[in-house]
């Protein structure tokens, strides 16, 4: 037996022959390629500003193509004390971003040497937009669309989007993926003009988001009726985060489905 | 002793797996710059789109970048923002390193050429415009292609509706195809500087018309006016359909 610790646990040369280092050092015939495609994916994230806060929601499903692979994926990440980051798209990239954000939070709040400068939503968004744009430059994108919800330094509601290309924009109502088609029109019906978010109450916002999630559950085949809902409010000089998990899409009515024919099944 | 054959070597594919990540997108919108005798303006609509979606109705894209210079980069929004960021930080360092010296518009213009050409082989997908006053105090507009080719002009439209607005500007600012009445098309209408009021009227007409005919243009019009007294910002609503 070979007593050299280097060989412990390795296949013995007597039995298997010398290790062929060409295997470990094998050069690929093609250039290294980064770019992937999303594998496990999360669908829409919805968000809406209102008078003194922001509401943001995402369901808990992780799809593997058309397969419902996971139903326990948390896609709303809390960063610091007053920011929520909602992520759709590839779940492994989501988990990587989650780690980056926790690192950022630790650096900013535990090793805080700047006298209590708070990590707020605009900073988190700026950070994420740099990460996303730099990964695009490397042609190795993080396959996600992200919505950052929280408050600006002056405590007005903050809502901004960034995606795998590094494209960013803000609006009073934002949604990723299918939500951009189905939910945004419903949310904008509540507040047609950006500046008018101050006329929307928290209750109206909650209802609008819940209604949008129901519409998405009816029509987006990659959505589920189990979701997480976060409502951030600024009241009496204090920020309150109402973060609720395992909610269910209420008031479902499938009566419209009874008379449906077609969609590839038997015709008339 | 010989090595036992493994099949690992065969896992090196000889044919690349087909996949394509497109690092660009078109976020629509349109921009316009006009120089006057003692002023210059830079205008842009505030809509941002992807495909047929209106992503935001108010996302400004014309910026005051310092020293009485305004800048915009229209096309792929992420590159536009990145280019302006890069210019702003270079501007900051120019001020630090040169005892707060004023950056002239022609120096800013040449520097932006280098920013753009520096990414010649992975270009910023934008039409860039800057506006300000030259050393004589005359209005100046510089326009760029995505890889840094640039020139100084009296006026330029960029972005989605450039092809709709530019011919209108040729006719109304540079008086192209305009002749002296009664000269039977032989005497060209002489060039003259337009007043700020005339320019603002042209800009508003250009954008309302572009909004009618181009689906990616609308929601709002933001105009930055540069004079020797500084930069003024004005906003006009546009149709939101």
What Rg of chain B, in angstroms, do the CA atoms define?
A: 23 Å
CATH topology label of chain A: Glutamine Phosphoribosylpyrophosphate, subunit 1, domain 1
Q: What is the CATH domain class of chain A?
A: Alpha Beta
Report how far the terminal alpha carbons of chain B are from each other: 78 Å
Structural shape of chain B: globular
Radius of gyration of chain A, taken over Cα atoms and rounded to an integer in Å:
23 Å
Helix content of chain B: 25-40%
Mean pLDDT rating of chain A: 92
- Total individual domains of chain A: 1
CATH-defined superfamily of chain A: Aminohydrolase, N-terminal nucleophile (Ntn) domain
Main beta-sheet annotation of chain A: 8 strands, antiparallel
Oligomer kind: heterodimer
* Protein structure class of chain A: alpha+beta
Structural class of chain B: alpha+beta
Span between termini of chain A:
77 Å
Number of helices of chain B: 4
Description:
The complex is a heterodimer of chains A (268) and B (241). With 268 residues, chain A is an alpha+beta fold. Chain A has a single domain, classed as Glutamine Phosphoribosylpyrophosphate, subunit 1, domain 1. Helix content of chain A is 29%, strand content 29%. Chain A has 7 helices and 13 strands. Chain A has helices at 13-16, 21-24, 91-110, 121-137, 179-190, 202-219, 255-258, and strands at 40-42, 45-50, 53-59, 62-64, 67-70, 76-79, 83-90, 144-151, 157-163, 168-170, 173-175, 226-235, 238-248. In chain A, the strands form 2 sheets. In chain A, strands 1, 4, 5, 6, 7, 8, 9 and 10 form an 8-stranded antiparallel sheet that branches. A 5-stranded antiparallel sheet of chain A has the order 11-2-3-12-13, covered by helices on one side. In chain A, helix 5 runs antiparallel to helix 6. The mean pLDDT of chain A is 92. In chain B, the strands form 3 sheets. In chain B, strands 10-1-2-11-12 form a 5-stranded antiparallel sheet. Chain B has helices at 77-97, 105-117, 162-172, 196-213; strands at 30-35, 40-45, 48-50, 53-56, 62-66, 69-75, 126-133, 139-144, 150-153, 155-159, 220-227, 230-237. Chain B is globular, with a radius of gyration of 23 Å. Helices cover 26% and strands 29% of the residues of chain B. In chain B, a hairpin with a 5-residue loop joins strand 7 and strand 8. Chain B is of the alpha+beta class. The chains are: A alpha+beta (268), B alpha+beta (241). Chain A binds chain B through residues 13, 16-20, 22-23, 26-31, 33, 35-37, 133, 136-137, 139, 141, 161, 165-171, 180-181, 184, 194, and chain B through 1-4, 6, 8-9, 12-17, 19-21, 23-25, 27, 48, 50, 53, 55-59, 76-78, 81-82, 122.
